[in-house]
Amino acid sequence: MLDLGRTFLQSVERSPQALAVVDGNTRLTYGDWGERILAVAGGLERLGLRHGDHLLAILQNRVEMATLHWACQFLGVIITPLNWRAKPDEVEYCLADSGARVLVFEAVAAEAVAGSQTAQGCVRIGVGEGVGDVATVAFASLYDGPALTGGPGAGADDVSLMLYTSGTTGKPKGVPRRHRHERAAALAHVAQNLYRSGERTLGVMPLYHTMGVRSLLAMALIDGVFVCMPRFDAARALSLIEAEGVTNLYLVPTLYHDLLAHADFATRDISSVRKLGFAGAPMPDGLLLRLEQAFRPELFVNHYGSSEVYTFSINQDARARPGSAGRAGINARLRVVRLDAEGPDGIAAVGEEGQIIADLAGDEAFDGYWKRADADAKALRGGWYFTGDTGYFDERGELFVTGRVDDMIISGGENISPVDIESVLSLHPDVDEVAVAGLEDERWGQRVVAFVRRRSGTAVDADALDAYCRSTDLANFKRPREYVFVAEVPKSPVGKILRRKLVAGEYEAETASESL
Length: 516
What we know:
The protein is of the alpha/beta class and about 525 residues long. Helices cover about 30% and strands about 25% of the residues. It has helices at about 5-15, 30-45, 65-75, 90-100, 110-115, 180-190, 210-220, 235-245, 255-260, 285-295, 375-380, 420-425, 460-470, 500-505; strands spanning about 20-25, 25-30, 55-60, 80, 100-105, 125, 135-140, 160-165, 175-180, 200-205, 225-230, 250, 275-280, 300-305, 315, 325-330, 335, 355-360, 380, 385-395, 400-405, 410, 415, 430-440, 445-455, 480-485. Strand 3, helix 3 (about 65-75) and strand 4 form a beta-alpha-beta unit. The protein is globular and about 70 Å long. This is 4-chlorobenzoate--CoA ligase.
């Protein structure tokens, strides 16, 4: 299999004059971008980076970040991207854990970099303005001097990048992925989303997240255009979709929600978008139906996967069976095992909720966590990756993802999935967003509580929502016993509901004025 450096050269050789990347006023063809990438690779080499070294990047989705990603692929350096919102202790941990020798950052992360002791011993490359004395080298200087020569310095079995998991419990875990893992995942992404040559995508999912990386690589495979968007803003996103003729969107459900909710949505021309894809979290049925009506897409893909194994399953017609994650992807084999299963052979019955596991022999699957034997022992068993997600196969062989093992609510001895309840409540016309969690209860062990953000201008109350749930086919024992109205549902930077914050009471209750 080709490495990623040679993969990019394919596009340069096929379509040197084709537009490749857009970032504000910067518009580069594959030929021009290829020259910049080789120049940056040469600059990194002059700073002493060698094959197999780690480079920590703390950047938003800007052309420098996309260029840096590709430059590392040519040089054989392991790009190790980190959330640009990272705190000093997170920068400190990930620098020490990865052993990175060079750190690239921009103004938004300057304070965090300055607060890391380990960072002071690294080469610190500053991008753009506002990096002050924290930087020791300017990114622009990497373009000076000789470009990398002699062709790509990595092979398919070399490590391409290392993503850090979100670390919602304990320290984040490094997920090293080889060039062949990344290329196989990108090829599958192209095939499963039916991307055609020259597609244009909105590059807003962060490049420290597997969804963002996949969008970047997939566009190169098809000589497409990556439209950089440093951070999500609904008005700006709608403007870029219209101005750049974006043809496909691959976002988390939260961002789709914000697009539809923005006042500019009705006045913007979004007709260029023909393909929608989502991942990162289940999409509530109500939102799915609203997107179908708003975009009328040719393809509406529910992609279920992870940093460790990019694709688990694919549903190419999410609107046909809301909630279905479809069937195993091109490079995947899946099973659902009983919740008490110790290994991969304790297979759950059809319709029985259990833990979803994936075959580690798949082309997209990683080899194991970075220096974390404890995490490997927990997640890698008998040649299978135990995802920590719960779900079941229905009688048609389609996978339904119901939540996380840790999120399962046990009330009165019954296992209750929050996702089932959220899907029902999301269809109520006065519900904007909803998240369900189990709160400690003396009698039931846990009671089901729904945290609801009301649609603007509505005043739906708990009695009305309870009556609505009673009118559906939601089982009685799953009905929320309490409703809490909130200003916002707490989420991670990539849009995942943070139920642990709801359980801990770390949320903002709705004010009287917000309920009017």
